[in-house]
Amino acid sequence: MSLAVRLQGISKRFGAVRALESVDLDLEAGTLHALVGENGAGKTTLMRVLYGAIQPDAGSIEVEGRARRFRNSREAIEAGIGMVSQHYSILPQLTCLQNLMLGAEPGAWIGERASVARAEELAARMGFRFDWHADASTLSPAGAQKLEILKLLWRRARILILDEPTAMLSPADSDALFESLAQLRRDGATVILVTHRLPEVMDHAERVTVLRAGRRVASMPVAETDARGLAELIVGHALERASAEPPGNLGEELLCVRGLVVAGYRGDDAVRGADLAVRAGEIVGIAGVDGSGQRELFQAVLGVARAKGGAVRLFGEDASKWPPSRRLEAGLRLIPEDRHEEGVIDEWPLLENAALGLQRVPPLRRGGGLDSSVQREVAEKAARAFDTKHGGLRLPMASLSGGNQQRFVAGRALQLGPRLLLAFQPARGLDIEATRRVYEAIRGLCRSGGAAALVVSFDLDELLEHCDRLVAMRSGRIFEPPPERAKDRAEIGRLMVGAA
Amino acid sequence: MTDSMLWVLLVGTITLASPLILAAMGGYVSERGGIVNIALEGKMLAACAATSLVGFATGSVVWSLAAGIASATVLAWSHWLLTQKFRVDAVVSGMALNALAFGATNFFDKRFTDPTHIGDMPRLPLGVYQALAFALPLLLAYGVRRTRAGVRLMASGSDPDKARQMGVEPVAVRFWAQTVTGALCGLAGAMIVTNAGRFVDNMTAGRGFIALAALILGGWRPVQVGLACLFFGFAEALQLVLQGTDLMGARIPSEAWSSLPYLATIVALAGFAGKSRAPAGLGKV
Amino acid sequence: MRLRVALVSVVALLLVVGALVLSGVPPMEALAELARGAFGSKSAWAGTLRETTPLLLAGLAVFLALRAGLFNIGVEGQLVVGAMASVAVCLAVPGVAGVVLGTLAGVAAGALWALPAGLIKAYRNGHEVITTIMLNGVANFLSTALVAGPLKDPSQQSPTTRLLDASTRLPDVYAAPPFRVNLGLVVGLLLIAATAWWLRRTVAGFELRATGANLRAAEFAGVPVRRVMLWSMVASGAIGGLAGAVQALAYEGRFYAGFSPGYGFDSLGVAILAGASPFGLLPSALAFGALAKGSTSIQILGVPKGLSYVILGLLIVVFAVVRYRREGARD
After folding, report:
1. What is the pLDDT of residues A287-342, one digit of tens each?
2. Whether pLDDT at B274 is above 50
3. Which residue in A236, A373, C39, C96 is a FRET match for A326, CA 20 to 30 A apart?
4. How, if at all, do strands A81-84 and A269-279 pair?
């Protein structure tokens, strides 16, 4: 069997982070090879190396027997490699045909008739149909997916990398996709499927490679393994870690989400009927791979995203119609996913950033104005909470390092009587010690302060160590493990990837 | 309304609409590529002055036209430089360039125009401009679909990041787009001054903004934008023809007609319930 | 990057110097004449302050909107309708009562004129630059029509209202002729101080600044961004209307076609050059006022008035470029 691609000893570091450590990958021509692993395991990084988007620090690439060095994606494309990334690059205001050929047009003149003919031929081979002159914004996610694949074929790709292709597809569309992939293989192409969905791997892939923490932990024919085995390899063995002291008696329900439906940015629903309850005194962790709807869930609880269906109850009342300001005033707090976009204003001084999100909460708000002494106090406490290193409260947020910014944002969330804390990757950019302290503070707040916390993280270990209770989120729904396996790592892992 | 009035109305419409169409097509190319352009006015005005001054000085049609196009293009290139390389907000850049054009044209006019120089400014027949104005919307509508340059222009204005992923460099595409914008605004300005005979301070009188209004009213589609320009030209021509005459007993002030393009645009913007048709990547680098 | 900025500044300077040379005026002499025309005597100062007053208020209007992330290009129109409304009221109601009512009318008119732009921006996401420019056009034609028709002074040939009598004016707070300081200027100064305080110390001011600084972060902080945008536009328009009322009732005493010599352009420049604090509007407006006053002197020397617009445009460019350099290349 000839090898379409051989990667050997690929290593890559981003600053202090080791994204890939000496990873090998053999791709046999004409096969569908699955690449699996958690968030941060290195799957996308490895594929971007193959696609020429990033250069490895060490290792070699062989494509169809020839040694290669790709300085950019264009060289990879010329070598016959194509990638469909998770976030489609379909341009909304262009037609399907224009999207198809952008960057690889036949010449100064498009030659519409000839181009359409060629497009039709490629599409027919895959069993696709397109209205070539229709606006590409009318395409469904499945349609956009198909067009992305055709883009690769237009550029004569023989090795196709698909990153999470079925993330937002319905089961029927997913089946259709795999049909097309089978056809492609019959035509001689090789496909790499980067995915979390183990059922798909078991049903369609011939070989599977598992990455964990930047290393290759296993590679075998799919026939030699099963979903449970894979899940265990992905998630790894439980480390000896002290688990937090469980809460005593839980108080009243602070958050109740019922049947929540929230739209996603690609047109279909990111949250598809989620149920969740959080009671005073507990820390609940949401495990799941990125893109399962956690983001949208948080935004709906905060009130920034509109709920298409279902209800959100906060502190015992129906909060579905409450604007975000009212929720914040009632005691909701957020440690956001992306500080720069959602949490801070980089140009503003720390003193002012301290009031962001709290500007309507008494006693910071006094009448129509901001109480300057309270503001100063809040800023100082927020900085002190986790030892934020800063040069003075009047200096801009941008003068702080990333880790210190995170500490400040986390500290801010604990100010002025929080009752429900939403934390999205609260430990992002923090070392182990700082992480421990943040969770300790959160726990203190919940145990003695009568508050509760809901944490989203892509690090399962972190959640297992610090949260009282875990649920899994997948495809917009929430899954609870059975009580006897409430904190069983393997069980949660299976729920996350759909292998239970 | 008499036959001769109808004829005057028709001719007037075409003559008044043509520079609008030329400028609006210039704005179209700029905005389709992703750069907001509120300086059509300044470019046209600069072209008016340059065409007039060089025309009187050299007596040559070619040189005067070249000067007009060049002056507008230099402004357009400045806009590109400021917005793409210096990341200045396109609105700020546009307003600054408008001010510059306004001041510079006044300056050069007062300084270099010889008031004793009677004579004709060398000019192209108006018909040339008019023909071009009518052909352009069709040409652009075709070109944007059928040529590689057109597709890349659309891509740069729709989503510059994704365009980059596909191997297109929006900043370079926009440079060429601005060049076209400059040329078209230059032609528009040349036509206005050709029609008037000589340069007069602030002779564009807001036509650049009306062209912008047409661009929005027409939903950034060349043929519809051209029609909007025709409509505005018609309104202005009607106002000129009807000036002073009673319409159904009441005298409608000329200003009502002049306000029409502006009011229409406001209504159009208020009426877009939901998706705007503006290029999605307007303003993004 | 620093090199590029320096380059732009040098080019700008060369252009201005070149223009002056072309006019046959040695640059240093022109500068001296400009300074003399603006600050050289008591009457010069009075004239400069007179030019500065509307720029101060109009600049504040633009500034406020800018802080909310909005471009209010419509100050031109808001000023015109504000002036017209205030004069119209004062024509009917003379004396102090008239001045008070007229000023309020001007403020209301300006606010009303900005309202459509605010609504369209907040709820239809229609770019406020376009709507305000369009509203300028309508204001221009509306005022021309009214002042040539119903508001016109029958005893005059040109389209202008009757001149308001001496008691129906905004009074001077200090007059040592030829030097005078009008109440309008004081109002402007007070308003700037009030705005500075309001932006820093109130919740509403905080939320306005947050909206302009980072819309999404503001949303996540519970700021009702759409409402903030709407009210910012309206407030900005109100101040623009006030600028018009002050200009009419303090200095002009009447309303006429062509009332605004292009305050729209100027106020944008004033606001941009003011920088981050409202107090920056003081030196900025004064600079533009001095330029306006001084340029009339230079015109006598033979330099066309267009030069001041060239300088305005170049100033905006240089300032905008410098700001970019300071904030660095943000992706």
Report:
1. 988 888 999 999 999 999 999 999 999 999 999 999 999 999 999 999 998 888 89
2. no
3. A373
4. unpaired
Torsion of CA A264, A49, B152, B163, to 10 degrees: 30
Q: How many residues would you count in chain C?
A: 331
Is residue B279 within 8 angstroms of chain C, CB to CB?
Answer: no
* CA nearest to C289, candidates C51, C40, C45: C51
This prediction has a pTM of 0.86
SS (H, E, C) chain B: CCHHHHHHHHHHHHHHHHHHHHHHHHHHHHHHCCCCCCCHHHHHHHHHHHHHHHHHHHCCHHHHHHHHHHHHHHHHHHHHHHHHHCCCCHHHHHHHHHHHHHHHHHHHHHHHCCCCCCCCCCCCCHHHHHHHHHHHHHHHHHHHHHEHHHHHHHHHHHCHHHHHHCCCCHHHHHHHHHHHHHHHHHHHHHHHHHHHCCCCCCCCCCHHHHHHHHHHHCCCCHHHHHHHHHHHHHHHHHHHHHCCCCECCECCCHHHHHHHHHHHHHHHHHHCCCCCCCCCCCCCC
Tell me the C-alpha to C-alpha distance, in Å, between residue C74 and each of B101, B173, C112.
20, 32, 12
Cα–Cα distance measured from residue B153 to residue B173, given in angstroms and rounded to the nearest whole number: 6
Q: Rounded to a whole number, what is the distance in Å from the CA of C296 to chain A's nearest CA?
A: 41
Q: Is C286 strand, coil or helix?
A: helix
Domains of chain B: 3-271 (1.10.3470)
Other chains touching B, judged by 3 or more CB pairs under 8 Å = A, C
User: A80-101 pLDDT, tens per residue?
Assistant: 999 888 777 889 889 999 999 9
Residues A306 and A180 in one domain: no
Distance CA A260, CA A299 (A): 12
Taking the Cβ of residue C217 and every Cβ of chain A, the question of whether any pair is shorter than 8 Å is answered with yes
Closest CA to C305 of B250, B202, A139: B202
Strand, helix or coil for residue A487: coil
The number of folded domains in chain A is: 2
Is A448 part of a structural domain of the chain? yes
Q: How far is CA C262 from the centre of its chain?
A: 9
Q: Is A342 in Cβ contact with C216 (below 8 Å)?
A: yes
For A275, counting Cβ atoms within 10 Å of its Cβ (0-12 exposed, 13-18 middle, 19+ buried), the class is middle
Contact B266 C120 (CB under 8 A): yes
Give the confidence band of C291 by pLDDT, cuts at 50, 70, 90. confident
pLDDT: which is higher, B242 or A492: A492
CB contact under 8 A, A104 and B167: yes
Q: From the CA of A61, how many Å to the nearest CA of chain C?
A: 32
Nearest to A379 by CA among A412, A402, A401: A412
Query: In chain A, which residues have their Cβ closer than 8 Å to the Cβ of C277?
Result: none
**Could you tell me which residues come within 8 angstroms of residue B218 by beta carbon, excluding any fewer than 6 positions away?**
B24, B224, B225, B226, B227, B228
User: Measuring CA to CA, which residue among A25, A28, A31, A26 is closest to residue A1?
Assistant: A28
Q: What amino acid occupies position C130?
A: I
Looking only at the bridges linking them, the beta strands covering A81-84 and A215-221 are unpaired
User: How much is the CA Rg of chain A, to the nearest whole Å?
Assistant: 25
- List pLDDT tens digits, range A88-138: 788 988 999 999 999 888 888 888 899 999 999 999 888 888 999 998 888
CA C41 to chain centre: 25
Per the CB < 8 A criterion, the answer to whether B97 and B71 are in contact is no
Which parts of A280-359 are beta strand (E)?
283-287, 307-314, 317-318, 332-335
Domain boundaries, chain C: 55-280
Let me know whether A187 and A56 are in one domain.
Answer: yes
Domain that holds residue A493: 253-497
Token look-up 């024509």 returns C91
Assess contact for A159 and A190: CB atoms under 8 A.
yes
